[in-house]
């Protein structure tokens, strides 16, 4: 990897790390919030869901803005908004007797910020390198930072909440400030050539042409990203709930237990990003095996539900998720022209957030039904992913650069 780009990558990696911490570190705290505010499990799951719903709606807009005006000009204000949202949730929890609605308002603002931060990092990495192998390695580092944030988040969230339940909210502005400084001073995105900026109508025509030419495999990647996040965040919500209710594990100890499968996910993501290279067939089959591992992990839980067996199964599933994510990122980033890369990858990020939004409330309802309902849903969702990879992802035929741009009609 080009040495001069190392600082750029590590600064960019701080964005998914911090955005993941700002969301995922609340998961182990949700049962505490539920009891403290005297709300239902569905209501508390909405603290995660509203954040994600807002991000889903605004990510495509952020992607377009980053294509038109530049990545950093979108990332930095977005981090500032995320910090403001975190401060609102923290202040409301501290000063108000019934802060639930204001917590949701703060989470909405935080979601707006997240829409323009983490998803824009993926096309930014694609802009930094010309060599596809370097892009793949860079995206592997970004996904590793993302997954490491998931490893650290339950430990950090539970640790902070052990002092004051709303302390994780206050930690979000601090983390965002760190990321703003890193991106501002260390990320040097390539300057645009001296040429006329695309008008929106022309840009829209080009995006439409890109989608039309690549619709099958793009929809497949979008769907796979949504499924993998749905299962991941759903099962994390499930694990957080049963560790307290059935096993009496609370606080930092619970965070450490939750970090075990997430550590496997992080290591798997790091290794996959390093080893994938430019071979898109390898990427396809890595995704395929990843979804198979995820489905298979839950099958064994029908025979043994002990905590050790549950964690072992989730470690296997985490390895599958970690292997699949860098391949998904690389396929969509390397298969799209730079001019539309921000917009197209933002649609992929939106689908990932659909999974993040749907997972906790759906699994909250499934938990009330039975453990088997949780496992069946996870298995069937993962098997859908297996089928989609097999039939719809055809790297040799479809994941190629788009044909020449649609030109503006003469005036």
From TrEMBL:
Pfam families: MFS_1. Belongs to the major facilitator superfamily. TCR/Tet family. CDD domains: MFS_YfmO_like. Its main location: membrane. Keywords: Cell membrane, Membrane, Transmembrane, Transmembrane helix, Transport. PANTHER family: CHLORAMPHENICOL EFFLUX PUMP RV0191, PURINE EFFLUX PUMP PBUE. GO terms for cellular component: plasma membrane. The lineage of its organism: Bacteria, Bacillati, Bacillota, Bacilli, Bacillales. InterPro entries: MFS, MFS_dom, MFS_Efflux_Transporters, MFS_trans_sf, Sugar_transporter_CS, Tet-R_TetA/multi-R_MdtG-like. It is a multi-pass membrane protein. Gene3D superfamilies: MFS general substrate transporter like domains (1.20.1250.20). PROSITE patterns: MFS, SUGAR_TRANSPORT_1, SUGAR_TRANSPORT_2. Residues 8-397 form the Major facilitator superfamily (MFS) profile domain. GO terms for molecular function: transmembrane transporter activity. This is MFS transporter. It comes from Priestia koreensis. It is found in: Cell membrane.
């Amino acid at each position: 990897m080009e040495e001069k780009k190392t600082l750029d990558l590590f600064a960019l990696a701080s964005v998914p790390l911090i955005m993941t911490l700002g969301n995922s570190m609340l998961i182990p705290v949700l049962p505490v919030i539920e009891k403290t505010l005297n709300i239902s499990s569905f209501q508390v799951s909405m603290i995660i869901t509203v954040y994600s719903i807002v991000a889903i709606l605004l990510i495509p807009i952020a992607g377009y803005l980053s294509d038109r005006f530049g990545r950093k000009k979108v990332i930095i204000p977005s981090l500032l908004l995320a910090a403001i949202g975190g401060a609102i949730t923290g202040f409301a929890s501290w000063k108000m007797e019934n802060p639930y609605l204001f917590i949701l308002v703060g989470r909405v603002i935080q979601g707006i910020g997240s829409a323009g931060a983490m998803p824009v990092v993926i096309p930014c990495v694609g802009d930094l390198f010309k060599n596809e192998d370097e892009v793949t390695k860079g995206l592997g580092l970004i996904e590793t930072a993302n997954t490491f944030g998931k490893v650290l988040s339950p430990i950090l969230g539970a640790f902070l909440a052990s002092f004051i339940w709303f302390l994780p909210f206050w930690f979000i502005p601090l983390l965002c400030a760190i990321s703003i400084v890193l991106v501002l001073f260390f990320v040097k995105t390539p300057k645009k050539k001296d040429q006329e900026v695309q008008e929106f109508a022309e840009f829209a025509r080009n995006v439409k042409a890109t989608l039309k030419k690549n619709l099958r495999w793009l929809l497949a990647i979008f769907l796979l990203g949504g499924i993998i996040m749905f299962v991941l965040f759903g099962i994390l919500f499930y694990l957080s709930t049963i560790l307290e209710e059935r096993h009496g594990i609370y606080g930092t100890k619970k965070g450490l237990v939750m970090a075990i499968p997430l550590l496997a996910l992080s290591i798997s993501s790091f290794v996959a990003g390093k080893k994938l290279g430019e071979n898109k067939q390898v990427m396809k089959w890595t995704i395929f095996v990843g979804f198979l591992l995820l489905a298979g992990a839950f099958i064994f839980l029908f025979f043994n539900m002990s905590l050790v067996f549950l964690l072992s199964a989730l470690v296997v599933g985490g390895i599958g998720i970690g292997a699949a994510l860098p391949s998904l990122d690389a396929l969509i980033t390397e298969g799209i022209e730079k001019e539309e890369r921000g917009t197209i990858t933002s649609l992929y990020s939106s689908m990932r957030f659909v999974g993040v939004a749907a997972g906790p409330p759906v699994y909250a309802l499934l938990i009330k039904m039975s453990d088997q309902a949780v496992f069946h849903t996870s298995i069937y969702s993962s098997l859908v992913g297996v089928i989609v990879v097999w039939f719809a992802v055809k790297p040799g035929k479809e994941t190629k650069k788009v044909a020449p741009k649609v030109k503006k009609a003469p005036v």
